[in-house]
Specification:
Radius of gyration: 17 Å
Strand content: 25-35%
Largest sheet: 8 strands, antiparallel, barrel
Order of helices and strands: HEEEEEEEEEEHE
Low-confidence stretches: 110-131
Number of domains: 1
Oligomer: single chain
């Protein structure tokens, strides 16, 4: 789902060195007392300089952006290759705290091969601790609100993925020398050779979210509210 991937600050879910969990760490109650995202149509930019005609339905926006509908507990977006009025939905929680953390559930189709990366599959994703052909882990992104509307709702933010630890060193050609970090952060669980990691601790996840900003691709992914409605 392009919307969920963009929210996570990832071009593709097949990116390595990110935290995923089999079960959610947050519930809707964890967002209490903090500003919420304004419901409606949002645009999430994955590439700097992406030109989007925001007056068009989000299903017509280019691949350099993600777009869809944000509601209190759900994201809904258009899956590439399906009818434009067909929406794919995923649970969403924006937990309170410092930093704010967005949690989304994403379907990984392990049987779809390399082409699955567009909808959440791909080779690196196979290292998630799942054995089923299709799984639905939870991914996490740190979210920094950058603008509020007069009602105190978030209408723009920057985000970055929650990483397992510092990126692996690169070889002389600039390529990563490992699938993921060689030094997982405290409270992060990771087996040698795995491409992704997990945790059962919210404090560990929050600590990883704070540390990850320094290692995130720059500029950070950004998003803003476009309009009320469902298209």
């Amino acid at each position: 789902m392009r919307l969920a991937l963009a929210l996570l600050g990832l071009t593709l879910l097949s990116a390595c060195n990110v935290v995923m969990t089999k079960t959610p760490l947050f519930t809707a109650t964890d967002s209490a007392g903090a500003p919420t995202l304004r419901p409606g149509v949002w645009v999430f930019f994955k590439e700097p300089g992406c030109a989007v005609d925001e007056s068009k339905p989000f299903a017509d926006w280019p691949d350099c952006s993600g777009g869809g509908i944000v509601s209190a507990n759900e994201l809904a977006g258009h899956k590439k290759g399906t009818p434009k009025d067909a929406l794919e939905r995923t649970p969403f929680v924006l937990a309170s705290g410092d930093p704010r953390i967005g949690q989304v559930q994403i379907t990984i189709d392990m049987s779809a091969g390399a082409d699955a990366s567009a909808s959440g599959g791909g080779e690196a994703s196979a290292s998630v601790s799942v054995t089923q052909p299709k799984s639905q882990p939870y991914g996490y992104a740190a979210i920094r609100p950058t603008k509020l509307d007069p009602q105190g709702r978030i209408v723009a933010f920057a985000s970055w993925p929650v990483l397992c630890g510092p990126p692996p060193p690169k070889d002389k050609d600039g390529n990563d020398t490992a699938m993921a970090t060689l030094h997982p952060l405290p409270g992060i669980e990771m087996k040698p050779g795995d491409a992704v990691c997990t945790t059962r601790s919210i404090p560990a996840l929050r600590g990883a979210a704070k540390a990850s900003e320094a290692w995130a691709d720059k500029p950070l992914s950004v998003a803003h509210w476009v309009r009320d409605g469902a298209r």
